[in-house]
## 1
Amino acid sequence: MDLVPALREPLEQPLKSVLGPPTAKVMAEHLGLHTVGDLLHHYPRRYEERGQLTHLADLPMDEHVTVVAQVADARLHTFASSRAPRGKGQRLEVTITDGSGRLQLVFFGNGVHKPHKELLPGTRAMFAGKVSVFNRRLQLAHPAYELLRGDSEESVETWAGALIPIYPATAKLESWKIGKALQTVLPGARDAVDPLPGALREGRGMVPLPEALLKIHRPQTRADIEDARARLKWDEAFVLQVALARRRHADALLPAVARRPRPDGLLTAFDDRLPFTLTEGQQKVSKEIFDDLATEHPMHRLLQGEVGSGKTLVALRAMLAVVDAGGQAAMLAPTEVLAQQHHRSVTEMMGELAEGGMLGGAENATKVVLLTGSMGVAARRQALLDLATGEAGVVIGTHALIEDKVQFHDLGLVVVDEQHRFGVEQRDALRGKGKQPPHLLVMTATPIPRTVAMTVFGDLETSVLDQLPAGRSPIASHVVPAADKPHFLSRAWERVREEVEGGHQAYVVCPRIGDEEDDPKAGKKKPPAAAGEADAEKRPPLAVLDVADHLAKGPLQGLRVEVLHGRMQPDDKDAVMRRFAAGETDVLVATTVIEVGVNVPNATAMVIMDADRFGVSQLHQLRGRVGRGSAPGLCLLVTEMPEASPARQRLGAVAATLDGFELSRIDLEQRREGDVLGQAQSGTRSSLRMLTVIDDEEIIAEAREEAAAVVAADPELERLPGLRTALAALLDDEREQYLEKG
């Protein structure tokens, strides 16, 4: 993309030349800010008014916060300790208040002298630190603070105006220091190049970008903040949607082979042998996919659906349609366990239709092969041969499918299961194996709100399966507070025993394996004596091997208990899954290798240990492994977190609803968006600083329409140099490739 260098210069200036190397180093390492432009786009999280105090009652746990409050009282205590055995240890406890609540500040040792002199009752100040719990009370230990005297010249100059911006900060760089740095670079806002086409900005009555930057950092009124936010949100939504619209535009120009199923071919034979009818949702989504496959440019479709909504069946019918049309279809699964599971369920569903070239195979049958990294040499050689000759119409595998040696006769469709687990390069390498770009179907069992689908998967058309097939049972979910009520945990193991005695099976899920070779001490530390949440946080996560051993010797003695985890040999994993599926194992103690796609209808109970260590979507996925047959499912979420903690509230939300779309909203609100463009949302600094994909649905939808119109009229954006500059800043090399490869 040829950019106009003159447009980029002023804001491209490195921070170290403006603020000095020490401050610039902290900003780069802890906030990812490198240039004047980066700092100008580091927006305040909120604003405090001089006469108005923060709600201490709403402080989040374990986050760096900045509060404006008044000192209520300060007390200096002396105590004896190992460092000061004669009672010479000093601890300063300061209570601050804002009318809504009180918060304890604590300073130790030599750190008490300055605050003891300065933090007198009645003093107002800004305090910054990490919120923790001690003796069941919220506290900030050794917070940084800045007095708000209102008479000192520096204070008046720095906090000019009634509104004090509070910036996302770190322990190394408090909000007010970021504010002072912004004072230095703010004149550079005049040089900001406006990415919005003039007609679009004026048509929507938005302020120019330089004005928005001045108003967001130094607002005089609340109306200034609203003007600036409205404008900056639009920038983010629009530039991102232009990037995605250009990607869709480029895809629409690629050639592909249209794949239409034969009227009485493999697909018809498969449908005839299904023992049930497709749900209305499955029929609708299948039609959308078949319409795409029949066109001469590549399908790019996202198939998302609730746990157990029958996505695999829809994907298999698409694969058979392509085989009918003379092509091959490949399904890429994230783990060997899942690849083997898919292979097993596909061959079972197809029966003799999967036995092409074999005795007893049906007349229009094809061959379904499995390809994983751990296969024996002979089996692997045969699978590769079947793919190269076209003998195998369907292949299911892990990333082993991507290796250079793997050649297809005519690859027509790639199905990627659990999109977020694959690197872009892996999907791209598989797509490159077709003579022309193959059609692409991406599946995810993590329901995604519509706005997220428009931003994260904005280059894909979306199909949603939200109906469960008939015969699926409800799942009851409960939180088991093991620390507050230990007898609840005992009752949980009794419930597992009752399910087994009723002829069913159970899963127990743990966050860790327990044979960590890289850290022989892992899991050996004693939990610290701190109270409540800190206690549960600092204890190492429970491990499969320890828990299985404890259960087999204790609460579940006499039951057939087995373990399953990612470091086992593939053949051993497969053997364990086969025994569990055959009912030869009562309780499977596993890591999250069972999270997706594992289907054992007789398993009715699941106990998730240290459930607070898992994300909302992951818990929903795991829970979907039970209740897959006619008997009702039970999911018990075991945690040691205290009742008031956010972790407990999150688990309560999971227990309260089975609606994956509702849970994905909760998950997103708690996690924020991660980097919408980054590799699999790796949690690095978000490219969205102002826009929130949950709340700003309307802006995203409108920006998508405007972006499509702009790209249709001028695909190379030749008449919009400012927009090209903004795109270049958004799409650094890594992100450009991310979009290129889809």
Note: The CA atoms of residues 325 and 679 lie 34 Å apart.
## 2
Amino acid sequence: MLQAIGLTSTPRRGLRAAVDDLTFEARPGHVTALLGAPGSGKTAALRLMLELDPGRGITYFRGRPMHRIPHPAREVGVLLGNVPGHPARTARGQLRMLCAAAGVPAARADELLDLVGLAGLGDQRIGALSLGMDRRLALASALLGDPHTLVLDDPTEGLAPREGSWLHGLLQARAARGGTVLYSTADPREAARTADRVVTIDGGRLVADQDGGDFSRTRLRPRVAVRTPHAARLAAVVSREARAARRSVEVVTEAGGRLAVYGSTCAEIGDTAFRHGLPVHQLADEIGDTGPAAPGSSPGDSTDPGASRSPADPAGPADPGPAEPAGRGGGAGAEGPRPVARGSVPESAPRIRRRSARGPIRPLRYELRRLFGVRTTTLIMAVVLVASVGLSVLLARNPHAPLPKVLAAWPSLLPLPPVAVGAGLLGALSFGDEFRYPALAAGRGTVPRRLGLLLAKLVVSAGVAVVLALAVVLVSGETLRLVYGHDWIHVPPNSVSLGVSWVALTVGCAWAGLLAAGVFRVTTAGVAAVLAVPVLVVPLVQLVLTGPAVRPVAGLPVRLRGLMWPRWPHETDRWIALVVGVLAHPVGTAMALSLSVLVCAYLLTGLHGRARWRSQRAAGSSQAS
């Protein structure tokens, strides 16, 4: 059962709250429609329930609020807007990536593609999907964890009637298996046709909470839609004849020469217009919307369809509210629900704080699918490889060019070799695409800063950088052998130190781009951080390292071995000296300094957000108790 209690949004300065003390429930085994005109607060209410926006109140999903559900994707499926996926990623790739985030097998993606009717479009790019196909993919994303509750925001908006009927049939099937389904809509006829219960809101407040059959009898009335150039004359004639015949007929004048006649038929209106010589351009039976229920009406009340009542009758609260669980936070041992009176003071309800999105349950698998699920990664790697080989061939024409520079394709005119720039760009995209296409953030909220997600991105970006660096050296070497022969290519004596420095440079650039994009939440910042290392940081480091008072660090491994117990092998001294040599180089020092600053900035921003979230959660819990 879904229970929303006292939902009240935080109003903007000078404006009223979009949601004001809203309380209702959606029962398992039923489809519940949250009905309201555009601007009535439907979406704001759903976002409060999912803890995506700040406010007051609380929502229980089978006895637990959202922030106390260990795996939300397995309890609540959410559809808010379109799929927040990279347009170049395939539908199957998107679902498999989300499977890793939800911790479900990848085979679940193909099952859902078949369920929502996209089995033949799994390799279709998201950007090429129609609105109906995109909505099907969004529904499949919501169903990944096989949740008990579905929360959908206007799922049939813009869909053709056939697509809408299919979607509602799927929702009815979910409810028939014992699930809870809540969707918002602005169409009362859709709600009457597809929902078992209709909750009507207006101005963010509850107007009526009715059974579907009661809603159809009290809210929807049959009428005759008439369009004529003489609307005023026809309305007067119909009203006069109805009074003479003592029949209850209501005529409502609408814009554009239209009339809505309640309590009559097309035949009667047509005969009246013919007798008085009035032309009629449209005459059709419709089901009209009479507006929100009148104040004081209850779900069991029904009104005479022929009764005269204006569609503009004021709205007010309807029936008593649903139940609130006795133990906030619920659980297996929580007591049964107890009734809560409607109209409680919103300030007494606990605060709703905007929660940060959880990271993926399988972060390494998620990151691999995210990185290689689009063509951008392959394209960047191919461009880097081709550019590096081309530069190597051009540099090798100079007989005095050093071999390491030739193999690395690093001319003196460039601040960084192409492979370092490519690795930095891939690292920047690792976090930049998360903020541009926030697949991990429900409702396009904040991207999680979980340590597991960060470690997965660091490991994957480092692996890609190492593979790219080695591929550039090997392919460039083989190309040079093919073009210039075997005579001048040889293995230098310091190949180990050169290789370590080369790998450290590419990995450092990848990490610099990744961390900067994670701190500033944009890919451009990551690329700028990579380029800033040779352009800004290296000159500053050179000023410090080349000063007259610089002391050498020779013999550091031997002195460290004297401090350690037990003694490490002598071979370790070589590796320590190698690492110290890499860090002592101006580029190595600049890269280490930049990475240290970026790591601290990332951790500080993440810890600040987590500390604020914990303090707000503690304040909300104390108010709830």
Note: The chain has a mean pLDDT of 82.
